[in-house]
Amino acid sequence: MADVVLKNVRKSFASVDVIKGVDLEAGHGEFVVFVGPSGCGKSTLLRMICGLEKITSGQLLIGGEDMSDVEASDRGTAMVFQSYALYPHMTVFENMSFALRMAKTPAAVIERRVHRAAEILQISHLLQRRPKDMSGGQRQRVAIGRAIVREPKVFLFDEPLSNLDAELRVQMRVELSKLHNEIGATMIYVTHDQVEAMTMADKIVVLRDGLVEQIGSPLDLYTSPNNRFVAGFIGSPR
Ligand code: ADP
Ligand code: MG
């Protein structure tokens, strides 16, 4: 059973159709990448999966359970945003533990999870710093750490590396792949960067104007794109 299943999912804002009937699955432990041009609906799909937006119609299952009436906080998902969205007045430790404190998680459990996540992300030495005293890459690690400590079944990443410089992007790409191997959770990752998609994905979902153009492994899409749009996006010669 796939961890995340969308069946004919649609989303309209007022009378504008933004997601026009999307079917897709993310298998347990799979690294699924959504690619497509700006405005095609990638963020809207993520926001519906994590519960920040309601679906207009269709069906959304996580862990086999219909999510229609399940609050964002109870879905077993955690989202990492592009713009970090850290609390500036809190230390790294406080930022990473905030959601757990809100959920009344015991202090000893919080300690253990934050230290473990900090270790994975190599930010153990930064736990008492505040965001303004850190680099962009370090802040992005904190944002990822905030998701890890919640131990979600499904991680959702919305262009997490797009604010970083090229060199750091390459480094973080490798580290995120390592993180995925280490914790084995299902990950859905949005990017408009073809190289990120091709190097990180088990499965790529190519989106265009609220619809799926093609789903396949990086190799599938490269060697047999369905059409010129997919070929152009993936960078294969056809
Ligand atoms: P992407 O992340 O692929 O760039 P988005 O999911 O952010 O695309 O947006 C898809 C479309 O939905 C865009 O045309 C955007 O303007 C529209 N949209 C997104 N959120 C809203 C909203 N809250 N109200 C109205 N339109 C929205
Ligand atoms: Mg977006």
Describe the structure in your own words:
By secondary structure, the protein is α/β, with parallel strands linked by helices. Helix content is 36%, strand content 25%. The protein has 8 helices and 10 strands. The strands form 2 sheets. The chain has a 6-stranded mixed sheet with strand order 6-7-8-3-9-10, with helices on both faces. A 4-stranded antiparallel sheet has the order 2-1-4-5, covered by helices on one side. Bound molecules: adenosine-5'-diphosphate (ADP) and magnesium ion (MG). It is a peripheral membrane protein. Keywords: ATP-binding, Cell inner membrane, Cell membrane, Membrane, Nucleotide-binding, Transport. It is found in: Cell inner membrane. Residues 4-234 form the ABC transporter domain.
Which ligands accompany this protein? adenosine-5'-diphosphate, magnesium ion
Mean pLDDT value: 93
Euclidean distance between termini CA atoms: 35 Å
Strand content: 25-35%
Largest sheet: 6 strands, mixed
Broad structural category: alpha/beta
Domain ABC transporter: 4-234
Organism: Devosia marina
Protein name: sn-glycerol-3-phosphate ABC transporter ATP-binding protein UgpC
Subcellular location: Cell inner membrane
Task: Give the SSE layout.
Blueprint: E1 4-13, E2 16-26, E3 31-35, H1 42-50, E4 57-62, E5 65-66, E6 77-80, H2 92-102, H3 107-121, H4 136-148, E7 154-158, H5 166-183, E8 186-190, H6 194-200, E9 203-208, E10 211-216, H7 218-223, H8 228-234
Parallel strand pairs: 3-8, 3-9, 6-7, 7-8
Antiparallel strand pairs: 1-2, 1-4, 4-5, 9-10
Adenosine-5'-diphosphate (ADP) binds at residues 13, 18, 36, 38-44.
